[in-house]
Amino acid sequence: MLRKMPRVNPLQLRKDLLVAESELNRAQLIEEWQAMTAGVRTLGARVKYVGTLASAAGLLVAGVSAFRRGRASPNSAKFSWLETPLKGAQVAGSIWLACRGRGRDQKDQ
Fold first, then answer.
1. Distance separating alpha carbons of residues 61 and 52, to the nearest angstrom
2. In 3D, which of 4, 101, 3 has the Cα closest to residue 49?
3. Could you report the per-residue pLDDT of 23-62, keeping only the tens digit for each?
4. What is the pLDDT of residue 33?
5. Taking the CB of the first residue and of the last residue of the chain, which one, N or C, has fewer CB atoms within 10 A?
6. CB neighbour list of residue 79: distance below 8 Å, 6 or more residues apart
7. pLDDT for residue 75
């Protein structure tokens, strides 16, 4: 028994190939978009982390400069030893709050 092969229309064949190629391109575009989105998210997280570190460093510098200014007062005869630990506790509290906020930001992601 010989079967007759149906005649293949070249235009229909070309159309089918173009549709298949289009589907492959669409799938590749989706993969590239997802990779780019992941890269942008990673970059955003790093920028946020660096910003948090810069903020904590700024607080530290401000605390240290305030601490040093307090020592250079003109009334050095009336210098209170209680002021030094209190100012140190203020600086430590500010740094602790900044670091604590950074930890919460990282958990949210």
1. 14
2. 101
3. 999 999 999 999 999 999 999 999 888 888 888 777 777 7
4. 97
5. N
6. 71, 73
7. 53
One-letter amino acid of 77: A
End-to-end CA distance of the chain: 67
pLDDT of residue 16: 94
Is it the case that residue 3 has pLDDT exceeding 80? no
Structure tokens that stand for 42 in this block = 């990673």
For the record, the structure tokens of 104 come out as 């919460």
Rg (CA), the chain: 33
CA distance 64 to 88: 9
N residues, the chain: 109
CB 75 within 8 A of CB 32: no
User: Distance between CA atoms of 86 and 83, rounded to whole angstroms?
Assistant: 5
